[in-house]
Amino acid sequence: MFKHVNRPCKEIEFNKMIEGLVKFREEYSGKIWLEVFLLGGVNSLKPDIIKIKNHIAKIKPDKIQVNTVARPPAEDYAYRIDLPQLIESCKLFGENAEVIADFLETKHVDKHILTNTRLDKILGDDKVKQVELSDGRILDADMVLIGIGVQPNISLAEFAGIETCKDGIVVDAHMQTSDKNIFACGDCTIKKSFFTGKPTNLKLASIATMESRVAGANLFEIKRKQEGVIGVFSTIVDNTVFAVAGLGEKQACELDYKVVTGEVEASNRHPGKMPGATNIKLKLVFNKSNGELLGGTARGSDSVGEMINTISACIQKKMTANDIAQFQLGTHPAVTASPIAYQLVNAAELAIKKIS
Ligand SMILES: Cc1cc2nc3c(=O)[nH]c(=O)nc-3n(C[C@H](O)[C@H](O)[C@H](O)COP(=O)(O)OP(=O)(O)OC[C@H]3O[C@@H](n4cnc5c(N)ncnc54)[C@H](O)[C@@H]3O)c2cc1C
To answer: What number does the ligand 1 atom closest to the CA of 156 have?
Structure first.
């Protein structure tokens, strides 16, 4: 791995280099900043990082700087790892590690992606100058964008005397309103959760179009029924797709499900040095009592957008971890993960071990 990444002259051996750095640390009292270069599909998986970390523990640098391919590489097989993976890898190295890859700045994307952090206060007199976060941090800010949601315009339905409530028009599973000759669908209607049957605020174009197909099919004769909304989202930040379907582990636990999870990370190509290879990280959440899939989260390359839709189909059809482990798939080196590392199947297999 050392030779593959660093291409050293043949006199430099890995162990010799480590020994040299350890000795240098013993003799040198100044600050040592050690750069670790992570290459997609070569040394970027957790077991590799733990090995590198164990070597670094002997060297005891003051700072560990984590880097990856930022500029167009000289070799077309040198793949960078994406930002979330870089941040997670950096955390594995410990508190004195920092990300130094600068590819985000070149795309004008702010490098601070904060999770589980709220904005508590907007600071400034006439205009925003800073924001205070729930963890006490204060950040400079030129602008604050807040997603406050939408309120459906249901005045026409109210005028027609159809049953409504604060959040929209009341419909049944056939998209029929309280007037059986009037159907409604989309953001103006009340949605029910696929999992609880209770009202939910999920409002998406993908839901609206599904509901319109149900309503359209039922206009003259009731033919279709929809069983509640699952909630499937995908988005992309700096080439990395983030996606979620159904319930996350925390949400499922809050609904009193006993859950087991299966988590995997594998390349979307095989072997991992194929052009376009990016790791896809996937977590599936199963109901421990019957093995049914409750949700999934994934991130990685573009194909995550379709992977999450497949996961949604599995949730909707109440597929169990066993069903998914036997799911028949098509693979190709240049297009998908390897059949032995296929993320959906392997995450299900890992969950099965915890169920039994
Ligand atoms: C910024 C943003 C990003 C989004 N991104 C996504 C996404 O990536 N994926 C996704 O699935 N969903 C996304 N959504 C949600 C998606 O846009 C909505 O769920 C979807 O448009 C709902 O479709 P709809 O037909 O029910 O309502 P709308 O698209 O709101 O259409 C309702 C129409 O009815 C008209 N109307 C209202 N009252 C009357 C009246 N009295 N008479 C005549 N016409 C009337 C309105 O002017 C409007 O044109 C996003 C929404 C926003 C705001």
So the answer is: 41
Say if residues 284 and 261 touch (Cβ distance below 8 Å).
yes
CATH number at residue 6: 3.20.20.70
Looking at the domain assignment, is residue 223 inside a domain? Answer: no
pTM over 0.70: yes
Ligand 1 atom closest to the CA of 187, numbered from 1? 26
- Dist. CA 105–CA 122, nearest whole Å: 25
User: What is the CATH number for 198?
Assistant: 3.50.50.60
Residue nearest to atom 20 of ligand 1 (CA): 205
Task: Answer yes or no: do 52 and 14 share one domain.
Answer: yes
Atom of ligand 1 nearest to the CA of 206: 11
Which pLDDT tens digit goes with each residue over 293-313? 999 999 999 999 999 999 999
Name the E strands within 69-190. Answer: 97-99, 119-123, 130-133, 138-140, 164-165, 168-169
Give yes or no: residues 254 and 340 share one domain: yes
Domain that holds residue 307: 232-355
User: Ligand 1: residues whose CB is within 6 Å?
Assistant: 153, 156, 186-187, 203-206, 208
Task: Give tens-digit pLDDT for 114-134.
Answer: 777 899 999 999 999 999 999
